Amino acid sequence: PEFHRELRTSMFLLADHAQLPGVAFPLEFSPLPNPNPRRFVAAYDVRSQFLLRPIERMLGRNAIPTDWSPERLAYYTAVPADPRYRELADEIVRDVDPRFVGDEIVKALAIKQYLEHEGFYSLAEKNLNGDDPVAAFLFGEMKGYCVHFAHAAVFLLRAQGIPARVAIGYGVSTQQRGAGSAVLI
User: Fold this and answer.
1) Stated pTM of the model
2) Hey, what's the torsion of the CAs at 104, 93, 165, 53, to 10 degrees?
3) CA dist 101 to 9, 60, 97, 108, Å?
4) CB atoms within 10 A of CB 61
5) Listed residue (5, 11, 28) closest to 169, CA to CA
6) Interatomic CA distance for residues 166 and 127, integer angstroms
7) DSSP 82
8) How far is the C-alpha of 133 from the C-alpha of 17, rounded, in Å?
9) Which of 45, 95, 99, 179 is most enclosed, with most CB atoms within 10 A?
């Protein structure tokens, strides 16, 4: 708790979403009366938290909560049967500083850095499909957009035993907000 700050936000959706959007790491959603059902499909409050401290302060901490069941851990560490995910993840983390071997945060940062340096961001990439579009991205040209990078990161993290999931969200600069605090998505 000392590394995070709580943020409460009200959300008003103009279109249905498979998962309710929240800010940073959503903890709790609660319904609100819809102020304009002709305009909004849903209204809710979300209680979130976000990291306050530099990521380096998290070194040495376990990424797996102590109260997780084996089933929950298995769910958040599942990867496709393709052995290339594990092989690539092992190759990426193999060269971390020996002082930090086994540190989950250092492994995650190494994977992030690999994707940033080896990947090429492009909204034009439309050919990543098939049975495993993540493999098409990660073991192909590594050319894609945010969803490709996010899913690749999750599978590489999971291949290292680090629980991970893709969370969909939006980043809006404060200059685009105008005088208010509402963001129209």
Assistant:
1) 0.68
2) 50
3) 39, 10, 7, 12
4) 10
5) 11
6) 21
7) -
8) 22
9) 45
